[in-house]
Write a structure and sequence with these properties.
The protein has one domain (15-141). Helix content is 32%, strand content 23%. It has helices at residues 2-10, 52-61, 65-68, 111-121, 128-138; strands at residues 37-40, 46-49, 71-76, 79-85, 90-93, 105-108, 124-126. A hairpin with a 5-residue loop joins strand 1 and strand 2 (46-49). Helix 2 packs across helix 5.
Length: 142
Amino acid sequence: MVLLSACSANNKPQPINIGQDNCAYCKMGIADTRFASEIITQKGKIYKFDSIECMVSFYQDHQNADFDKADLWVHDFLHPKEWVPEKKAKFIKTDKIHTPMGMDLIAVKNDSEIREIKKQLGGNSMKWSRLLQYVKTNMREH
């Protein structure tokens, strides 16, 4: 039982320390939790990112057994202290919000938040599979 609880604790994202944590992909300091994300590998290694696109690029660059079963987390743009697992997150690209790497991708936790963002800022929602392709195609330009 103790071993099981210890393993499950590793799958929870760690807080972002603004001004102290650097992005594992681009090495920039993480300055805004609204865009921050994390990957937690099957072995419990935690990688922090300043943007969704950095997390996706890092994830795509590290396709191996440890990353295949990794947990990916994003911050809810409207509630930046809340983490959302990538599998439940809703993604949107809007030119009205500028993210650290310039791809302007944000995440929220549900459909009503997507509607709220679109109403206020416009933009296009993306499913995870489309987001992966979009970042793969466009990240090198940024």
